[in-house]
Write a structure and sequence with these properties.
With 270 residues, the chain is α+β, with helices and mostly antiparallel strands. It has a single domain, classed as Lipoprotein localisation LolA/LolB/LppX (outer membrane lipoprotein receptor (LolB), chain A, Clam), CATH 2.50.20. The chain has five helices and 13 strands. A 13-stranded antiparallel beta sheet has the order 6-5-4-3-2-1-13-12-11-10-9-8-7. A hairpin with a 5-residue loop joins strand 9 and strand 10. It is globular and about 60 Å long. 35% of the residues are buried.
Length: 270
Amino acid sequence: MVSRIRRLVVLIGLALAVPATPSAQDKPISAEELVKNAVNARGGAARIKAVQTQRVTGALYFGPGAEGPMVVELKRPNKLHMEVTIQDQTVVRVYDGRGTGWMVNPFAADKGPVALTGSDLQNITDESDFDGPLVDYQAKGSTVESLGKDDVAGKPALKLKLTTKSGDVRTYYFDAATFLLLKWEGIRKSGGQEVPVESFFSDYREVGGLKFPFEVNTDSPGSDFVQKLTVAKIELNPQIDDARFTKPAPPPAASPAASPGPAKENPERQ
């Protein structure tokens, strides 16, 4: 269960940093054009950058008995606070925007708050960029390459390879008609492991002139891991106190009468 919780909180960020639609033409399209069209499809770089804070609320499902409400708050520059409640236990991840992050995980032996390091710190740093990886990708040290055409669930798609400054490689599949993101795939590193991941984006809706997917289905090829994120509400520029992005409080002590934790109930999942 602990390993699944770790994967869960790492993968949630994928639903937030969606690259940002004109119609595709039959002629070949360069990587730079594809990026421009994808950002415009989202609503345009200027409108994206005008968002100073963002709150996403919804529900997360990643297996029987492992589902519950979720809230993610973001604030410039690069601050993030995320909470996911599962079986009445709340997992918290926080990034202060200045290079320090923490995690509170009631399902782990060290419940926290634990300072994030290594790939876990890099992951939350990436997730805190709610402009998405394509906006100003060159300034971020990333490179892009067009990989031609493909299809996703029967829809014609255009593929884009993005290589980050740190060397991570990600592949994006954009709807060839709308340039909205259909699929993302890549490798996520967590806890010393490399996890192949693919996410499918659907149910796009407009909020404040920007388009967001309200459903994201994620799996890890070769494993039984599945995750479904259903967004209920996206708020742009809500008031969020800076205290939300400081070191979180430890979880409340468990009551002696409380039922056994999920790690004991499902030891095979650890």
